[in-house]
Here is the input.
Amino acid sequence: MRALLVSALILFAGSAVADDQDGWFIGVNYAHLDANFIDSGNSEAGVAPDGVTFRTFEFYGGMRLNTWLGFDTRIGTSLSDEVVYVDDTTPYSYKHKIQHYEAIYYRPELANQTAKLYGLFGVANVASEGTGYTNGSGSQSQNDVGFSWGAGIGFVVNERFNFNMEYRSLLSEDDAEYTSIGAGIDLRF
Here is the structure.
């Protein structure tokens, strides 16, 4: 993280050059999303204290009006089911999947001709499902909504394409916490 901050400061040490990338953008991201499920005392319903990492894919788009005014909307899903163990003392496990997630962000962005540094502040909804409990209790769906934030750095490939790396706290609620580290590309037009 420190290396990322030092790199960003070096890139933006000079005054930010006005860029012509205001307008609409669309993109795709691939990320590793860490999900930590907090035990609520109901392990038979599938709430697990252990975490799991999902591989996710998302589409996003938005508009940048100027440096301080932009928005970003996203929709994504996990690419596979992952096995979650209820705890270390019981053999119970189940498959968990992020069915879909959506987020909308306020997106301030500093940019020059080489790179951009951006923040994400908004709200996210995560819908997940656990199925196939080894103790025979069936399946459970979970839907969480809450504050979401993140930061990223993008590198200009050419005048229309950018390569981005970002960290996001997708959601942090009482019974689940989702954080991701990912990379993607966007197209400006």
Remarks:
- The CA atoms of residues 7 and 138 lie 49 Å apart.
- Confidence is low (pLDDT under 50) at residues 8-18, 40-49.
- The first helix runs from residue 2 to 11.
- The radius of gyration is 19 Å.
